[in-house]
Amino acid sequence: MAKLWSYSLCLLATLCMVQAKPYHEAKHRALLRTGYIYFPGGGYYRLAYKRPIIWAEARRNCQQEGASLAVVNSQQEAENLRTLYLDYGPNNADLQFFASNTTQVPVANATVHIGIHDIFIEGEYLTVRSEPLIATGFVRWKPGFPIGDEQNNCGAFDTAKYILDGPCDAKLPYICEIPEAA
């Protein structure tokens, strides 16, 4: 009887392990189908560049997908975001769109909305996850930034791998992030 019980538990454990793996793979495939790109050790990122929008709208769009505006946590993640933009961003067919859009910066040094801000207290930068910017592990301001005024409160990232603050009503592409599950 004990042997039968042991065999049953082993079979049940095996079935549970088999069920856990496809769920993760199914989620992975679903994210890839919806435009997210996977970076091992970082997570899933989606670049939205065809219709630049203001920071608050970008944040809301990401939240509606179960994501957040990207928060840069390391030099490697900054490289991932740069690679995402350069490899999956606008191509030659899109350049005419960008040339006619006066709110867009040049593709060579593109700027996108990310999940940092100092909306509540000037100079006190927080992530969209309510963490202090310093806790992210990546504080690499573009020379001349941050701009200490009440008009430049929303975070951005440029493809030179700097963070900066700019007007929240600037219409820019944005990056949504779903961190890799631990």
TrEMBL record:
Gene3D superfamilies: Mannose-Binding Protein A, subunit A (3.10.100.10). It comes from Cryptotermes secundus. PANTHER family: MANNOSE, PHOSPHOLIPASE, LECTIN RECEPTOR RELATED (PTHR22803). This is C-type lectin domain-containing protein. The keyword Iron-sulfur does not apply. It comes from the Eukaryota. Residues 39-177 form the C-type lectin domain. Keywords: Signal.
